[in-house]
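Let's study today's protein:

:::
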Amino acid sequence: MPSLVLPEDGVTVVEATEGQEVATDLTSEPRCDATTPGRTASALSWRAPAEGAEQRVDLTFFFQGFETGDFVATPTLPPGQTAYLLLDTEPGLQYQWRVLTRTINEWVSSDAATFRGAVCVVDEP
């Protein structure tokens, strides 16, 4: 799994209820890093909530990883950030990711999205 931080202990994550502002339109672009042959990357992007709250991205490749706590998280992102470049994904592995938005007492989750890690072939003479 790419090196990110482990989720904070004791943090409450809830699904959004009607009317709550959360990140939407999650998209991913798996690709090969242009500067390092064979290095994988995925450009994650989303539409940030209008309220400008802090966010973070959670990532898992485990079945029901979010429910079981088998996921990693980015550090807290600044309000309004709408992209994150994830390096060193495993080629061909399916990942699930979500964007969390901080409210006063909890993190509210977007819907989850999936992508597969890019396969980056390096030709050697």
